[in-house]
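ligand=zinc ion
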Amino acid sequence: MASTLPMEVILMLGQTIEKVVPITIALAILFSVLTHFWACNGAVSWWRKRELVTDVVYWFFVPVFGRVVRIGLLVLGAGVVFNIHDAEALIAFYENGHGPLSHLPLWAQAVLFLVLSDFMLYWMHRLFHAAGFWKYHAIHHSSEELDWISAARFHPVNLLLGTIGVDVILLMAGISPNVMLWVGPFNTFHSAFVHANLSWTLGPFKYLLATPVFHRWHHTVLEQGGNTNFAGTFPIWDILFGTFRMPVGRLPDGYGKDETTIPTEIIGQLAFPFRR
Ligand SMILES: [Zn+2]
Ligand SMILES: [Zn+2]
């Protein structure tokens, strides 16, 4: 029998793009309106960004890549760690989670997933700012015109040892994949939000939830204090571990200028870490 795998990958590609398009249009309208009133850095509208094509390609490539690799790793993990190999047993194993964590109410599993994944990603993010790993993460920091559409610009190695790896660990630990119904849309919206060109700090809530100003400080050049604000969602990690930075009465400016040799198109960026 001929393999149906190529057909399945094409179908998955179609399904993912079908899902991503309406979300993208909604985000584009929302952030265009918000930026009109509350821009952090006046400069250019996101649709006039010089590297718009690069960001759009990442925007669609990353969800497809993430989905295929996540499924692959979950299947591999179940085989290696739990000795589960046939398709039916695999589905039963992951369908509603397994073990003690899966007995918690779904909302509690979702909260646990958000907090645990954010804690792990904080440390992975710090690792990616260290010498041997920076070349992969530098791609994310190469956006000079930072906006919501820049949120997906990540090298695959960064994704693998970042969000994808952490998702796989938590699902293998037993949390139900059904939490993704809430966590997925929240993460998509929130990661676009923190990259958006907005002057929002959310007042006292700046300690509770990562904001555009919080994350834009992270994207500033090193001499401006770029090595701060590593948390993706909850700034509590930066407060606890001494990397929090939100200068009062100032807005961040000047992004992605530490690495001047990074190509501006995606193929060059994917090859960049291996050419050094
Ligand atoms: Zn970073
Ligand atoms: Zn970022």
